[in-house]
What we know:
With 415 residues, this protein is an alpha/beta fold. The protein folds into 3 domains: 2-247, Metallo-dependent phosphatases (Purple Acid Phosphatase, chain A, domain 2, 4-Layer Sandwich); 250-335, no CATH class; 349-415. The protein contains 10 helices and 16 strands. β2 (52-56), α2 (67-82) and β3 (87-90) form a beta-alpha-beta unit. α1 packs parallel to α2 (67-82). The longest helix has 28 residues, at 387-414.
Amino acid sequence: xxxxxxxxxxxxxxxFSGLKDIPNNIIEAIKTSTFQSLxxxxxxxxxxxxxxxxxxxxxxxxxxxSVKAQVQFKKEMERLEQTNIPVYIIHGNHxxxxxxxxxxxxxxxxTVFRTxxxxxxxxxKGGESVAISGFSYGKRWVNERMITHxxxxxxxxxxxxxxxxxxxxxxxxxxxHYAPFTINELREKQYDYWALGxxxxxxxxAAHPPAYYPxxxxxxxxxETGEKGYLLVELVKNGGETVDFHSTSPxxxxxxxxxxxxxxxxxxxxxHVQTALPDLxxxxxxxxxxxxxxxxxxxxxxxxxxxxxxxxxxAHQQTAQDRFIWITNHRITRMLEDEETFDLASLFPEAFQxxxxxxxxxxxxxxxxxxxxxxxxxxxxxxxxSLAYRDEMIEMALSELQQHASIxxxxxxxx
Length: 415
């Protein structure tokens, strides 16, 4: 039997997106969260005396790796070296190898796979022989089916493991379709385990052979909700495995939906929200909350306006010396009581979809936002127009349209 840790998508020193007006103590907690999660993984490896650790790509957030991230990662690898735990790394699309002269050297217990598929072998403390196959990205875009270059299972070893940072074809995901593969292609290699990376949502791709995305180790925006961490894997010779998830992220993003359609006044809605939020005293982790509140059609515009103001949310923020539950954004939606709706997508489906499709295109989005990014006096403070930023801006715009149309529709209904 062998035991190892499988983690991926560390994105060390990664900035969080969609945050504003955050207290300094929370900002500091956010800055250190990926490093805390990594340290917890290393401590778990030492505590469990695993045979080795696998990091399946995107250890860093950018190819231009920050010195801070490199130093922290090196220190953690040195902790594993002191306890004779080997580490195997593949680099992904975010941290492709690039210019090696800019990178700190890692200790001797760390093996970094090169840009072509290669296989390394090791013998565990228990005497089992293990082969590990993988490759690192040498550039940001690897569209080739690298899976075809992986060798068939080595017959001379007790276990053969594949490491692959890539996209499972047919998977519904916003992540880029790099190094694509199918489940059948994984099976054809006849490996004992596939340690995958690239997709930030934890999932089991296949049972035979066991193939897993562990997800990233710390959520970085409101779309990456839930606990994040690593997989502790046990493989038994001639078949059989145990794969357990362990949470390590000190901060968890969570979406909370509050049904306040029956509420008649501010006090009732306030209590609904208070009940729905986690209790800071009982919580062992920190939360960043996206709050969605549905209210009834009869609620006045004046009350809707008050609910939308930052002061309403400030009353629900919870902070302590080393804990916080912080609402990062919230949305109020007035729900109509009858079946008649004033949703633009329903009224003008073809035209609405055509406009939305145009906005999603990078060229069109950039043309519409050039003035803000190039000429605004706040341009230097704005986030780069990445895919995630574009999606977030469109989502916010759609939310505003929906809320405005609902209020206007409700007023027309009353008339």
